[in-house]
Specification:
The protein is of the alpha+beta class. 29% of the residues lie in helices and 35% in strands. The protein has a 3-stranded antiparallel sheet. A 3-stranded antiparallel sheet has the order 2-3-4.
Length: 119
């Protein structure tokens, strides 16, 4: 009886690990309780490319900079092909998952983040 129970638990764990390998990184980060939410700032220089997963949507792969100056790549999808030239965005993220974003003026960006963005 105990062996069956342990075998069942082991099967559930292995199945969970296998499923997590096939789920996209954004989805994993969204539900991972150990990843903290934060705001990152990005500078959009180029126009978006068509998103292969969603027709009529465009994708921007950008380097996000948090308030302390650390960078990480994020992906923003939108129905807008291009933002105004040299637009700054503030994105609320959790790992690679982007909850929302908004266009901000350069004055609203922390100094450390602005230094990294303007390099």
């Amino acid at each position: 009886m105990r062996k069956k129970f342990l075998f069942g638990i082991f099967g559930v764990v292995v199945t969970g690990v296998l499923i997590m390998t096939f789920i996209g990184e954004e989805t994993r980060d969204r539900f991972n309780p150990f990843i903290k939410e934060k705001d990152v700032f990005v500078l959009v220089k180029d126009e978006g490319i068509p998103d292969p997963d969603f027709p009529q949507r465009y994708m921007f792969r950008l380097n996000g900079v948090d308030e302390s100056g650390e960078t990480d790549e994020i992906k923003i999808t939108t129905s807008v092909k291009n933002f105004p030239k040299e637009s700054y965005l503030k994105a609320h993220v959790k790992g690679k998952y982007v909850y929302e974003y908004e266009v901000v003026s350069p004055e609203n960006i922390p100094e450390k983040a602005m230094e990294v963005l303007t390099k």
